[in-house]
Amino acid sequence: MIEIPQAAAVLAGAVVALLVFGATWVLYAGLRARAEAAEMADDNARLGALVGGSPAQAMVVRADGRVEAPRRFADWLGLERLPRELTELTSADAGLVPEDAEALTVHVTAAQRAGRPFTLSVRARGSDRALLVVGEKAPDAVRAPGGVVLWFLDATESQSEINRLQRDATRLRAAFDALTALIEAAPMPMWYRGSDLRLLMVNTAYVRAVEGKDGEDTVARGLELVEGAGLGGPLANAAIARDTGEPQTVAMPATIGGARRMLRLHDVPLPTGGVAGFAIDIEELEQLRGGLKRFGEAQRAMLDRLSAGVAQFGPDHALSFCNQPFRRMFAMKNEWLADRPEFDRVLERMREANRLPEMRDFPAWKAERREWFVAPDAVEETWTVGGTHLRVVAQPMPDAGLLLIFEDRTQQFELQREHGEMQQVRTATLESLAEAVAVFGKGRLQLWNRKFRQVWGFDEVFLDAHPQITSLVKAAGPRLTNPARAEVIGDLVRLAAQDRQQRGSSIAFADGRHFDVTAVPLPDGNALVTMLDTTDHHRAERALRDRNEALEAADRVRTAFVASMSYELRTPLTSIKGFTEMLHGGFAGPLSDSGVEYTEAILVSVDRLGNLIDDVLDLTQSEGAPLERRPVDLEMIAHGAAEAVAPLAKAKAIELVVEDAGTAGTVTGDPRRLRQVIEHLLRHAVGATPEGGRVLLHLDGNAGVARVIVSDDGPGMRPDQVAKAFDRFAQHGIARSGERALGLGLPLAKQFVQAHGGRIELISEPGEGTLVTVELPRK
């Protein structure tokens, strides 16, 4: 048994107690730190959520240029990954606009060096997003020495509202400036008064009218446009407008430029309590009114000197004026007329003096004449009183009055009687003529002779009614081969009577007769129509026309026959080609070398004959056929035609050159026909050019036309061949050695070019080659 000293035991107990206490404190401190860490984590999570959902996103730019930013910031800029450096804030299709990114870099550098805060507006590339950047030196807690904290705020909606307000402000400012300029440029004086009726603004015309120095001087001195600003003056008119809220108008005199003028002042109340005003110079209007009054007096003086009687009644049906001839015609005394008698009393006085026509019911007759005051138009009638003929014109006046004019037409009626006798003499003269003659006047048939009635077969009753031209034309239509040709007669009469022009035409009757119709203007304004029988002339002309039609029909039969034969030749030609291809392909057994050569020669001849048949069909069917109309790239189809002809040129070792100036461009037409034109010209050139020769296709154009030129260095053509190069179905025979064989290519090319409204020309001389030029209009 080991004995432990008491002191040692006490010491050991103290150590053990100390260890237990230390362990307990460590456990408590650990638990407390754990709780604080959990609370701090919760706070960090809450703060992170707040920052993540905040409308502002922070970005830290360190001193070495490295960038720390949240993911949401990259989404705002459309960046696929977070930027690591400031230069990565812009890319080819995302990030900031390059100039905004450059400006941001300059501001960040300045903030790093001088610690100066800044505010900058930037834009995102490829979107309407606008961002407001607030930059300041990074605080110590951020742990970014020398760095800068950038706060990005999404200001898209605010910027849109600001832009809208700026646009509205700009528009309103422009409208205000335009209104101010309009008021300033107005030729009439304009002003604005406050609620106390003092002048606040005037325009240049006002300043000139009051002889002020300028607008400010005029307003400061209170210069009024019209003298007398007291009761009944311009201020009184403006006060009434202000108090009643209704525009006011008054005419007042004023002295402007040393001359007395009459002005009409307009005062208009405004919602602000002020009054706007303007003045219109009516001096000329007043002078016109005075002049009109003087004109009326002069007119009455002139009417007093006329030979016709004139009487004027006012709106109250009272006589307001009558001239001396009226008094003499109807035996009116001045004393009785001075009382301004009414219309009915004047008619009664005329009847008492036996100056009215005889009538059974005078009250009814008088009531009808009373309606003249309200008639829509002037009324004209003739009064016969004894041996006197009066022409009476009743003209309603705009003021509800009436103007009566009485003209003595007795002498005129005598002249009309004499004129009737002269017409009878003229009618007898016309009846003795052998030609059909008629006289038209005032839109009617006036005179005609027996020959005219016999030619048309009209009834005497119809002609005696003096039919209008339209009725005569309608009756003449069924008698003509073409009833619509009857309108020619009316047209000729109108040209002669109205336009005073002599014209002629021809008409054909249904019974085979033909007449030349001529209309001659007469001095009295009428029209004389003569008809000359040309039946024999037309018969001879018809015989010649029938012969020409027979020749044209023969040409059409020939064309139809050629087309039909071309179709008929296709069937056996197709069979020949098919069987030959079978033989050449070995379906009937192997062929010898000569057999293969013979079959290939047959196929070449079949292709050549097929192309010839196609040309014949194109030549006979395309004439008059509608063309497709759409934009055509001339250079593209020209190259296509050259590629199609290239094998033929290669087989003869001919150099085929395409020279494109780049100005041919586009024309409107049928692409298939235009390609055929170029291909026919190239085939013709290659066929006529000897081995080793050269064929050139040249393309150019200008604003009006596109041009295609095909030339070769072949043997050329004789003048007789050039003259018949474009003839259809011309029998040129087999070309002699060294001569060009003329086929259907050139006629087809000419036909297609002319169908497009273009022009084709061939130039050639023996030994000098051939050149063909085609010009096609743009439209």
TrEMBL record:
Domain Histidine kinase: 564-779
EC number: 2.7.13.3
CC per GO annotation: plasma membrane
Keywords assigned: Coiled coil, Kinase, Phosphoprotein, Transferase
Pfam families linked: HATPase_c, HisKA, PAS_7
Record carries keyword Ribonucleoprotein: no
GO molecular function terms noted in the UniProt entry: histidine phosphotransfer kinase activity; phosphorelay sensor kinase activity
Source species, domain of life: Bacteria
Catalytic reactions of this protein: ATP + protein L-histidine = ADP + protein N-phospho-L-histidine
Keyword Phosphoprotein: yes
InterPro entries hit by this protein: HATPase_C_sf (IPR036890), HATPase_dom (IPR003594), His_kinase_dom (IPR005467), HisK_dim/P_dom (IPR003661), HisK_dim/P_sf (IPR036097), Sig_transdc_His_kin-like_C (IPR004358)
Any coiled-coil regions, as ranges: 155-182
Protein name, entry field: histidine kinase
